[in-house]
Amino acid sequence: MKKVFEYIKPYTWMLVITTILLGIEVYTALIIPGFMADIVNYGVLNGHIPTIWRNGAWMLGITLASMALAISSGFFTARITAGVTNSMREGVFTKVLSFSSAEVNKFSTSSLMTRTTNDIMQVQNALAMAIRLFIYAPMLGIGGIIRAVERNVSLTWVVAVATMIMVIILFCIFIVALPKYAIWQDLVDRLNLISRENLTGMLISRAFSTQKFEKKRFEEANQTLVKTGIFVDQSFAFLMPSIMLVLNLTTALIVWIGAREASAFRIDIGDIFAFLQYGMMIIFAFLMVAIMFIMLPRAIISARRIQEVLDTEGSIHFKENPTPLPSDFKGELAFRNVNFRYPDASDTDENVLVNVSFTAKPGTTTAIIGATGAGKSSLFKLILRFFDVTGGGVYLDGIDIRDLHKEVLHTQIGYVPQKALLFKGTIESNLMYADSNATTERIEAAVKISQAAGFIAGKPEGYAANVAQGGTNFSGGQRQRLSIARALVKKAQIYLFDDSFSALDMKTDAQLRAALKENMGDKTIIVIAQRVSSIMDADQIVVLDHGTVVGAGKHGELLKNCAVYKEIAVSQLSEEEVNAGV
Q1: For a Cys staple, 181 with which of 297, 376, 493, 499, CB 3.0–4.6 Å?
Q2: 499 φ/ψ sector (left φ>0, alpha ψ -120 to 50, else beta)
Q3: Per-residue pLDDT tens for 517-557?
């Protein structure tokens, strides 16, 4: 957990100040029983009132000072824990942002969310307790033992035996509960995953009437989590009664033995009161450690899970000295003998892409078509370097994209994903997500090309219209057009459209394609499509079948020379349209 502890280093000076304050606070707590003993021995028994008033005033002043010290140490503790967890949360979030799709798939989205929120909260709570208890409790316990021995040696064995019993109890509970905490955190991830799937797939669940199945799946995961939680809680439920039993027995023994010693005139009555208080301090110190042990196992597991994220190296590596793009960069994109297999695939699985080669030139539109699972979207993931090729290479103006800086690469690409995702905010904020410095003219031009101007103008707020989380207050076609407009706002040389016209009607689709051709003449446009009608006028159509390029050319050429393309066209177009293309 080295990286987790590194977040504490900037707050070392605060930790030192807190330790000093806690040390002084412990000292004040340890001298109060001495004043109490003097009040009894020299004030009460001798009837000396000034001694009672003088020592009582000292006790009151020391108590007020101790309270001020506790408030001060609490202030610094709060600053340390808040700062450490804030930095830790930023560190984990930044690390996750650097992950490729392979790392996200490895942890799962639900697990990463749990680690960024719940796990860090567990560490924060434990850290707040640890700063005080792990510093305060040992000093209080050790100081109490020293003071108790100074008062009377004959009673010390009682506290020693009580201490050993509590150590054994703590050790046994810790050994039993710690492994269960690791299981418990994994079960939380599982429950979050099921909950997330149910929320995102609610409409599908209702459409197929699988509510009972989903409820059963949730209940099974929930019950497993509950049983594990009950076991852990029951383990720690044994702790407090045990500590209280030891505490009460210790008190009784000290009073009983002390009374016998006092009757034999071997100890003063005031010293019995002082020893009793010191004994309670020692046991209270162990009680605080016990409370810490309740939180520590969960915090240790959470810290390990956070460490796993921080230690994970991304599978996508960028060179320290990347190759710069040429000053006359045009945006020619070429696949050369590309093979690709997903990182989590087994050795027996076939490649998703096999020996793929084609070139998308500036000023042209290249369309990718093929059956579901043919590997179309995988091409875009390779272009964006969400994954790296396992063979061959992807080249930008003759430069392998693995030799480019990631920001340089992504700056030149405008991407429209298959699922049109909008962020909570306004239409304007979503469009400016591509470029925060975009001018009004550029935004309006992108909106016009994407055919979104009409429905935006129809809203009273215009560009200031509210966008709900995920854009759920817009139709599928509207979300798609806004997603396209967002990509067009970006000043890029290459634009990737991943089946981005599927939610558009034929008329809007045709208008959008015409606007792209008219306004994006010098750009490299690559389109993944399911509809033949959307790509008939493309300058180049690449046909994929089981990850292999089985045809490349214009619409008419492929109808004559590519059986796979013709089969797709026949399934979508009328006989007249097919014959007209031929």
Answers
A1: 297
A2: left
A3: 888 878 899 998 888 888 888 889 999 988 898 888 888 88
Q: Parallel, antiparallel, or unpaired for β 540-545 and 333-340?
A: unpaired
Sign of CA dihedral 169, 172, 175, 181: negative
At residue 79, the 3 state secondary structure works out as helix
Burial 448-466 (b: 16+ CB within 10 A, else e): ebbbbbebbeeeeeebebe
Instruction: Give a three-class secondary structure readout of 22-76.
Output: HHHHHHHHHHHHHHHHHHHHHHHCCCCHHHHHHHHHHHHHHHHHHHHHHHHHHHH
The whole-model pTM stands at 0.68
Q: How many residues does the chain have?
A: 582
The dihedrals phi and psi of 352, each to the nearest 5 degrees, come to -70, -40
In angstroms, the Cα distances linking 132 to 12, 70, 79, 458 are: 15, 10, 13, 60
In the numeric block, the tokens 């990463």 are attached to 112
* Cα separation, 124 vs 82, whole angstroms: 7
Token output for 469: 């989380």
What are the tokens at 70?
């506790």
Q: Counting Cβ atoms within 10 Å, is residue 382 exposed (0-12), middle (13-18) or buried (19+)?
A: buried
The amino acid sitting at 361 is: K
Q: How many CB atoms lie within 10 A of CB 422?
A: 23
Edge-to-edge strands, sheet with 548-553: 413-416, 494-498, 524-528, 365-370, 540-545, 548-553
The helix or strand, by DSSP H or E, that contains position 289, with its residue range, turns out to be: helix 269-311
Of 487, 558, 543, 554, nearest in space to 516 by CA: 487
Cα distance between residue 64 and residue 66, in whole Å:
5
Helix (H, G, I), strand (E, B) or coil at 129: helix
Residue 8 has a pLDDT of 83
Q: Are 333 and 383 in contact (CB under 8 A)?
A: yes
Residues 247-293 have pLDDT tens digits of 778 778 777 776 776 666 666 666 677 777 777 777 777 777 767 76
Residues 35-87 have pLDDT tens digits of 776 666 666 666 667 777 877 788 788 888 888 888 888 888 888 888 888 88
d(CA 108, CA 90): 19
**Both tokens assigned to 62:** 């020391």
pLDDT tens across 183-208, in order? 776 777 777 777 777 776 776 776 66
Q: Are 547 and 335 in contact (CB under 8 A)?
A: no
Calculate helix-pair angle for 156-200, 120-151, nearest 10 degrees: 170
DSSP element (H, E) containing 290 = helix 269-311
Residue 399 in contact with residue 325, Cβ under 8 Å? yes
